[in-house]
Amino acid sequence: MKKLSKPAVNKVTTLKEAVNRFVHDGSYVSFGGIGDRTPTAAVHEVARQQKKGLRLASDTSVSYVHDSILIGLGLVESFEIAYNWGGIWGPDAVYRRALEKGIPKPIKLEEYSNFAMGMRLLAGSLGIPFMPVKSLLGSDIPVHNTRIKFMNDPYGGEPVALVPAANPEVAFIHVQRCDVMGNAHILGHLGNDDSLARAARNVVITTEEIVPTDEIRRNPNLTVIPYYCVDAVVKVPFASHGRGCPYYYSMDVPFGLQLAEQWGTEAGFNRWAEEWIFKVDDWDGYCRKIGWERLTRLAEVERRHQQYGEAR
After folding, report:
1. For the chain, how big is the Rg over CA atoms in Å?
2. 22-41: b (≥16 Cβ within 10 Å) or e
3. Which of 36, 111, 120, 153 could crosslink 166 through cysteines, CB 3.0-4.6 Å?
4. pTM, rounded to two decimals
5. Which of 18, 29, 13 is nearest to 235 (CA)?
6. How far apart are CA 151 and CA 74, in angstroms?
7. Which residues contact 27 (CB under 8 A, 6 or more apart)?
8. Rounded CA gap, 139 and 148, in Å?
9. Does the pLDDT at position 310 exceed 60?
């Protein structure tokens, strides 16, 4: 895939417009983040617009705020995944129902290790067709995934596994701050979002705040994603709720624990989706429903215990 550099222009738009423009039925989509800093608002908007037959790719699918929402709504055709993670919230019943019982519909699963999925994105970012991975040797993963190939190292003769490059058609990545052109700062862990931004054909950045370019230039080492990778910039405060966003707000643990209970049945999940996705117009409506006071408390907790210092 040949990826063209994006221009240094104002790319600010709405989430509704970005999803409508870049996601279509059958699109190959990846949502960034790892544990925290998840683009949950973008997932909700894709669901709200009922984009169908999606092919998803994820190194870390974060339960209750990520790919499983789209799986539970029957919008996913296939899933390339390393693992599904619920953390303290517990196992993801929606994901298990789809894989074990085909509810609400069967999905085609293509499994990799975390490292192997990261190498797929790295290969995609470099414009090469595959990446050698030794850690899959002896694993059962290739038994169930015939896209993983084997060869002998032409230089040393040792066997290696080969994983194909991943080049999603669109990636949604949430960051703490960004300028209007798409120069994005990520504070804290990156996951594979640096590679994802370079591997995907189109990139939509959701950001807690939009800041002047001069502010971005104060700390250029934090500009993990440069403007030339980015197609759209959307300001979406608290876009990772109920997960957290490092240095901005903490994970909403009580909210997540009750999600696990509600998602325990298909009917329970559908009631939740109707209430929290389809009966609100957008993410701002979701935040009003959660309550700005509650969200502000999550921000206060995070900033009390984690403050990011910068040289001025």
Report:
1. 19
2. bbbeebbbbbbbbbbbbbbb
3. 120
4. 0.95
5. 13
6. 38
7. 51, 54, 55, 169, 170
8. 11
9. no
Name residues whose C-beta falls within 8 Å of residue 66's C-beta, 6 or more positions apart in sequence: 31, 33, 38, 40, 43, 58
Domain 15-68+167-305: CATH superfamily is Glutaconate Coenzyme A-transferase (3.40.1080.10)
d(CA 252, CA 84): 19
34: confidence class by pLDDT, cuts 50, 70, 90: confident
User: With the C-alpha atoms ordered 41, 46, 50, 52, is the resulting torsion angle positive or negative?
Assistant: negative
Say how far apart CA 224 and CA 240 lie, in whole Å. Answer: 19
Q: How far apart are CA 256 and CA 298, in angstroms?
A: 13
Mean residue pLDDT of the chain comes to 95
| Per-residue tokens: 73 | 């709504």
pLDDT band at 135 (very low <50, low <70, confident <90, very high): very high
What digits encode the pLDDT tens for the residues 177-215?
A: 999 999 999 999 999 999 999 999 999 999 999 999 999
What are the sequence ranges of the domains in the chain?
15-68+167-305, 130-164
pLDDT one-digit tens code per residue, 53-89:
999 999 888 888 889 999 999 999 999 999 887 788 8
